[in-house]
Amino acid sequence: MALETPNSGSEIIESKPSAISDVYERIVSNLEGNGYSEDDIFAVHLALEEAFLNAITHGNKMDPSKKVRVDYLVSFDKVEIYIMDQGEGFNPETVPDPRLGQNLYKTAGRGLLLISSYMDVVEFNERGNRVHMVRYKEKPDLTKNQS
User: Fold this and answer.
1) What residues does each domain of the chain span?
2) Class of 7-136 per CATH?
3) CA 26/CA 85 separation, integer angstroms
4) pLDDT band at 1 (very low <50, low <70, confident <90, very high)
5) Which residue in 94, 104, 15, 20 sits closest to 59, CA to CA?
């Protein structure tokens, strides 16, 4: 059993896809050190990558002068990540569901769907330029204690 070794960090990084790799490596190292499964590590990697790409593409509009802030906390029982861009923000409620009708043939909304599918908590600030994501290591079994 791994010992609990909480680790947190805050990074201001460039608006380019490769800039997330160092942060990702630190987070993965902490996930491994806290005994997270391969499924958890894959889920966090995918969500982090999608959220970061959304921040630089849609938020910062690929503007190299803008930055992305990534704050994270990895503990024995959960990983918590905030990603904030310098864009104008958006309303996540207006993003079409890519599983419905004509949206099946469009790419819009797929990243948000993946993030929501792999993380246990996904919340946006009011402005819509910061996402808060949480994945729990042990998920409660909601079917227990039901008669």
Assistant:
1) 7-136
2) alpha beta
3) 20
4) very low
5) 15
